[in-house]
From TrEMBL:
Family matches, as InterPro entries: GH, GH30_C, Glyco_hydro_30, Glyco_hydro_30_TIM-barrel, Glyco_hydro_b
Family membership: Belongs to the glycosyl hydrolase 30 family.
Domain of life, source organism: Bacteria
Residue span, Glycosyl hydrolase family 30 TIM-barrel domain: 68-336
Hydrolase among keywords: yes
Record key words, sorted: Glycosidase, Hydrolase, Signal
Name used for this protein in its record: Glucosylceramidase
Stretches assigned to the Glycosyl hydrolase family 30 beta sandwich domain: 397-458
Chain's gene name: srfJ_2
């Protein structure tokens, strides 16, 4: 890979291409990928002139939301596969994920509090009790299993390699003794303020336990997919109950001097309005909440723009959705164009047997795939590089700026202004043909061609540079 420091006043260019996006054949072994964050010749900035090519206008003075970060998850599936590797190989993989020069600079990582469906373990939480036994005092609370399984160590190693990384956490289920089902599967939090208080204390203890291991939890979502009950860790939690939980957790955090942010919902676009309004229209609920987490499995990204207009002081985070190919890169552009402040992929490394997991379907290929027969052998699929077209160049603290969206038949895009002042345009060609386009920005113009089924990232200094006629 090439150094990403901005070296000139020309437009710098990198390309990555899709190959069989989302196809299970990627589990069979590595394949040739035409462009892999491949540096291309710089493009000259020119004075504006007439052209018949697709024209994209960019207006950096019209800024949208500020970007928190982008990344993936370190759930047990990924961590158990990493644990099978030699220490050197494991570090190599982690560097590829988070290093800003030799890797793709991921800087926002999601972890699970207890197990999710992507695990090879028996489902557990941090306070599992025999049937019929409760522990409101949480005397038996412990993250010991996270330590034994190497989860804590892996996250420690990752943050040591990249101190800029922020960690946020999500729970798939409260302990079974708190639930109506008496199980980590299905059910809901039992009625009564004593159960709300118990779960708030449980979350606070988890945050403190990770902090004691040198891992600050930047934020947490109160319940993964709270409208979905299924036969793996899950818990139905209506918005009225989540509002009570947010208020109780905020009190716990404040009383113990913890700065972890509280993100509500953590579920699909389609149900967002009905869920967030009962929480945020309540004064206590609104005061307890720092942001809104969303998934993209049902509904449209445009709802984020609507919610941003309704609650402009509550940042929106896209906390779960794996994407494939140039269509996925375009979907990601739509997230940011609709006020998402972050993006997180879900599951980083499955093995070639599509293992381990206990999800109820067949997962698609992850950014990295481990050879089930040789743990130190792994291969990278195009989605790693396509995500890198964003993450290596768009820095935390960047602002999304206004631009024409373009079209699926030509090119689409999203543009950011980094804290250092440079502009970063991610251009996506989903079509079957090379596309030529022209960019107009701050009195300057540049022309480019982007191969079929390829994403291009273009970077240049805002408001500066030598203009040639």
């Amino acid at each position: 890979m090439h150094n990403t420091k901005l070296l000139s006043d020309a437009v710098e260019v990198w390309w990555s291409s899709e190959v069989d996006p989302g196809k299970l054949k990627w589990f069979e072994g590595p394949r040739d990928i035409p462009y892999r964050l491949s540096r291309q010749p710089d493009i000259a900035l020119t004075v504006p002139q007439e052209t018949e090519t697709t024209r994209i206008t960019i207006t950096p003075s019209h800024a949208g939301q500020q970007i928190l970060g982008m990344g993936t998850s370190m759930e047990d599936t990924t961590i158990s596969n990493l644990a099978r590797m030699s220490p050197a190989r494991r570090e190599e993989v982690l560097r590829l994920l988070v290093d800003e020069e030799s890797g793709i600079g991921l800087n926002l990582i999601r972890i699970t509090l207890g197990t999710s469906d992507f695990t090879g373990q028996a489902f557990y939480t941090y306070n599992d009790m025999p049937e019929g036994v409760t522990d409101f005092e949480q005397r038996y609370f412990s993250i010991k299993k996270d330590v034994e399984l190497g989860i804590v160590e892996t996250v420690q190693q990752l943050t040591a390699l990249a101190p800029q990384v922020r960690i946020f956490a999500s729970s798939w289920s409260p302990p079974a003794w708190m639930k109506t089902s008496g199980s980590l599967k299905r059910g809901s939090l039992k009625e009564g303020p004593e159960y709300t208080a118990a779960l708030a204390k449980y979350y606070r203890l988890a945050i403190q336990a990770y902090q004691e291991h040198g891992i600050p939890i930047y934020a947490m979502t109160l319940q993964n997919e709270p409208l979905f009950e299924t036969d793996y860790p899950s818990c139905y939690m209506p918005p009225e109950r989540q509002r009570e939980l947010a208020v109780a957790l905020r009190q716990e955090l404040d009383q113990h001097g913890l700065e972890t942010k509280i993100w509500i919902f953590d579920h699909n676009f389609s149900d967002a309005w009905a869920y967030v309004t009962p929480i945020l229209n309540d004064a206590a609920g609104c005061g307890a909440v720092d942001g809104i987490a969303l998934h993209d499995y049902e509904g449209s990204p445009e709802v984020m723009s609507e919610i941003h207009a309704a609650y402009p002081d509550k940042p929106i985070y896209l906390t779960e959705r794996s994407l494939w190919g140039t269509a996925g890169a375009d979907r990601m552009a739509q997230y940011f164009r609709n006020y998402a402040c972050s993006y997180n992929a879900w599951v980083t490394m499955l093995d070639s047997n599509i293992s381990p997991h206990q999800w109820l379907g067949t997962p698609g290929p992850t950014m990295m795939i481990q050879d089930a027969a040789d743990a130190d052998n792994y291969w990278i699929i195009p989605e790693y590089y396509l995500l890198g077209q964003y993450t290596r160049f768009v820095k935390p603290g960047a602002y999304r700026v206004a631009s024409d969206y373009g079209s699926k038949e030509t090119v689409t895009n999203v543009v950011f202004r980094n804290p250092g002042g440079e502009l970063v345009a991610v251009m996506i060609n989903q079509s079957d043909a090379e596309q030529e386009f022209c960019v107009l920005c701050e009195g300057r113009q540049w022309l480019a061609k982007l191969p079929a089924k390829t994403v291009g990232t273009y970077r240049w200094r805002a408001g500066a540079g030598t203009v040639t006629g």
